[in-house]
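lol forgot to send this yesterday, sorry. struct tokens for the thing we talked abt
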């Protein structure tokens, strides 16, 4: 397999075969993100992708059961090309159980439900979508390139096609100023979609990003551990997404909030309330330079 630049994948894809299908991120303007800054976005030639799958088969044998296709927005590829990739991977690895990609709301919405159903039939099981927030003010400020209704439309199309959806919620990305609005609006958007997974990430200011400068000059206030937990509490309290799993599968988080809605809601809230009794100096520091 051949890779260019730093290759990123979700923690849940730790055991997946990685076949790079796009390079970089088409948007690459989010103020909080330091990924893909050393690469120019482009699609890899289809033949190269298929060759890498064949190389993986020759190296590992037919035993691969999970595959993730980096980089940042693989759903941008033509539906026909993706179908060929998924079908070829299934043929090379007969025991393949899961194929997943990153996909932004903007580019999911460029595909019809029928396109998405074709991808599902070819073998696509799950799309990872970095919602970050359902608050339009916050989305605009961090230059996410989308808005709440577009996120809802994309999420509902993915669900209608029968593809699993992982939506990512970035705790604290609204800053202290909009923590309540960020949580409540995100709960509204997520409730309208009811994705299989709501994956919690906690914002950490990263050097060499625009928002880091705002953090240093004080114009963006990063949440303390208790403030971050209180924001998650607002999110969960306002979620009405039956069947969705809330998952805290990332080192950035202050607490492992985990459960399925609605049956585990009260237990999750109780866990957060317990965490709020723990002194803040027992949690990790807010600045990544101290991690």
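and heres what i got for the seq, position by position
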């Amino acid at each position: 397999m051949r890779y260019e630049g730093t290759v990123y994948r979700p923690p849940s894809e730790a055991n997946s075969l990685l076949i790079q299908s796009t390079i970089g991120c088409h948007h690459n303007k989010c103020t909080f993100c330091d990924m893909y800054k050393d690469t120019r976005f482009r699609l890899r030639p289809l033949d190269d992708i298929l060759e890498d799958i064949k190389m993986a088969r020759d190296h590992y044998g037919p035993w691969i059961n999970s595959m993730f296709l980096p980089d940042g927005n693989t759903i941008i590829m033509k539906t026909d090309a993706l179908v060929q990739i998924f079908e070829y991977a299934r043929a090379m690895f007969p025991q393949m159980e899961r194929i997943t990609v990153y996909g932004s709301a903007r580019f999911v919405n460029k595909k019809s439900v029928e396109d998405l159903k074709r991808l599902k039939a070819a073998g696509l099981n799950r799309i990872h979508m970095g919602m970050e927030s359902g608050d339009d003010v916050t989305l605009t400020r961090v230059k996410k390139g989308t808005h709440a209704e577009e996120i809802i439309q994309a999420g509902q199309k993915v669900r209608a096609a029968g593809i699993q959806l992982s939506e990512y919620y970035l705790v604290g990305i609204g800053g202290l100023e909009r923590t309540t609005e960020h949580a409540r609006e995100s709960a509204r958007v997520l409730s309208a979609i009811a994705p299989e997974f709501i994956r919690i990430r906690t914002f950490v200011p990263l050097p060499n990003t625009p928002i880091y400068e705002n953090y240093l000059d004080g114009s963006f206030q990063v949440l303390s551990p208790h403030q971050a937990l209180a924001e998650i509490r607002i999110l969960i309290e306002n979620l009405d997404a039956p069947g969705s799993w809330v998952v805290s599968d990332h080192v950035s988080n202050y607490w492992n909030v985990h459960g399925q809605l609605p049956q585990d809601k009260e237990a999750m809230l109780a866990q957060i309330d317990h965490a709020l009794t723990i002194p803040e100096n027992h949690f990790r520091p807010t600045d990544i330079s101290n991690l």
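The chain has a mean pLDDT of 95. anyway ping me if u want another try
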